[in-house]
Amino acid sequence: MTVVTEVEAAPARHGLLRYAATKAGGALLSIAMVVVATFFLFRLLPGDPVRALAQGRNMTPEQLDLERARLGLDRSIPEQFLHFVGQTLRFDLGTSYEYKRPVLDLIGDRIWPTLLLTGTALVMAVSLGIWQGARAGWKPGSRFDKFSTAISLVLWSVPTFWLGLLLLMVFAAGVGPIPGVFPTRGIASVDAPDGFGYVLDVAQHMVLPCLTLVAVVYAQYLLVMRSSVLDEVGQDYITTARAKGLRDDDIRRRHAVPNALLPTVTLVFMRIGFVVGGAVTVEAIFSWPGLGQLFYEAIRVPDFTLMQGTFLLITVSVILMNTLADVIYHVLDPRVRSV
């Protein structure tokens, strides 16, 4: 019996390895294309980094040329590209024009606030979307289904920056109709206490940006979960469970929801890739000191090395998470496994 099981399991393992290797190869190809696109994309932006950095300083044309040579911008585009590729292969993202610090150090400083904000928002959006989607799909056409689906679609269609600005107008101290309830800028107050008081202060600062992120993305999980549950409702095992006298809540929780989670799991892993990049619009509006705000500051200069480093990190994270989602889905769902 054991020998037969091992023999039968070997092709499945080999199929999984082939599938994972194929996906990994596709991911490497995508990353290579991203490296090329990252370099040339930002060179199309208007503006001269040297002149932008020289604002407010009386610099002669000779001094500007020296600064341009120091930054490597006096080289031809092919030379700059080869230099960028060589640095990237050595995991060196260069030095920021504006901050005069290694890009990796800047990313290391800013990534934790981004993970805190967007990670918290992801957990809340997934939990809310799965809960509402499961209930809405189990009883389609009910008041709960119509209300939750309508609200989620309205919020999903609202531009992120508009919702963020609206919350700022409502809660901004001295301006909004509900002033001072929640902080509207930064990650912590200047006079924030130490210990648990600091944790509470950071939590207060997270409320508005986190609410903005959750409101505009949770509809994706709700709609996918609702559709998956609707597909499961008509399955024979649901009819059998009801014939056995099981309660509807137990059938939904123990049978329908676990089977309907597969598409949502794939969507969650895809969104995890965006967690690293954060939300540029939200972080810029609420002055949240994360990668999104760093990327926004780099665009204003423009700081080519900083833009390239942050954009490369974001896109590579998305590619890797999408690849991992495909492999995990292949493992969880036998219907998509290779023969």
From TrEMBL:
Bilayer topology annotation: Multi-pass membrane protein
GO cellular component: plasma membrane
GO BP: transmembrane transport
Subcellular localization: Cell membrane
TM annotation in the entry: 26-45, 111-131, 151-175, 206-224, 260-286, 306-332
Keywords tagged on the record: Cell membrane, Membrane, Transmembrane, Transmembrane helix, Transport
Pfam families named in the record: BPD_transp_1, BPD_transp_1_N
Cross-referenced Gene3D superfamilies: MetI-like
Superkingdom of source: Bacteria
Main subcellular location: membrane
PROSITE patterns documented for this protein: ABC_TM1 (PS50928)
InterPro entries: BPD_transp_1_N, MetI-like, MetI-like_sf
UniProt family annotation: Belongs to the binding-protein-dependent transport system permease family.
Name of the protein described by the UniProt record: ABC transporter permease
